[in-house]
Design brief:
Bound molecules: 3,4-dihydroxyphenylalanine
CATH superfamily of the largest domain: Bira Bifunctional Protein, Domain 2
Number of helices: 11
Helix content: 25-40%
Number of domains: 2
Structural class: alpha+beta
Strand content: 15-25%
Length: about 350
Amino acid sequence: MAQEIFDKVNALLAEIENAAPSSNEEVEQFRIRFLGAKNVLKPLFGEIRNIPNERKKEFGQLVNSVKQSAEAKFQALKSQADEADEAADAGNLDMTAPGEPLSVGSRHPVSIITNRIVETFSRIGFTVAQDREIEDDWHNFTALNTPEDHPARDMQDTYYLMDDPEKLLRTHTSSVQIRTMENTKPPIRTIFPGRVYRNETISARAHCQFHQVEGLYIDENVSFADLKQTIEYFSKEMFGHNTKIRLRPSFFPFTEPSAEVDISCFICGGEGCNVCKYTSWVEIGGCGMVDPNVLENCGIDSKKYTGFAFGMGVERIAMLKYRINDIRLLFENDVRFLNQFTSAF
Ligand code: DAH
């Protein structure tokens, strides 16, 4: 009696090993027979009471191994069947089916604004140049009339390289003016977009990294009127044709005279709102006539040439344009935030 049951179990084991279903349907039948709710192995567990005590353990192990073989065989059959299905599908590719949608992404707001600035200045003949973010003291400060111990350095504390304290992360794109003037003869009419760094505590309004676009125009007879005209052209292109500009006297070590650039508030049109803090004006950058010392530092004859320079913050313009109230959002790379921006505004 006991041997008969053992034989039955061994026969099932052989059946499992030899099973070779040729369709998904047959694989399903295999599953129902050996692993389904009413599978053929279940009653065998009940047979244990007919097995003599000394063979009970052997029997239990045998039935369990049959169950495991059935599971392993089923997994193998299923993956074979899936592969066969895929191969069959590939053969039956429906060329008329609609395509899978491809997500193309969108440009970062900082890139959108930078491109827009570059494009606006390109239209009046400015070329574009970029240079290193790791600078030396000369190009970032000293050549720009800001020698060591000059108080203007305090406003631009930055990060210094540990293995070369002469090197620092540039605090503004004005360093690229110097590099360009050292290497190019006037006329020079170029803008310099790029990332800059400052040792700032990060908050909604300030970050330790941001982007600027610097502009430089050096030639014979360049005057403050040319500077004003250029800033006005840019502001109208960027913020709308009703935009007015205001140049507020200021100080930068590398320009003389210097001014802050304000534009009339394009949100309220001068009525007063919380973007312009009820002043009707918003500051977008700084500018001035390049100091003759700076020209001479770069080997340019300041008797023959004059020029103007300006610099503006890209995040500042992006935040104004898109009404973003926290600069950190621009650096967190959260796709839910970033995919709200398109090139058009
Ligand atoms: N480099 C200045 C800054 O980061 C901005 C600036 C002001 C650039 C006046 C200029 C300029 O070229 O003429 O604060």
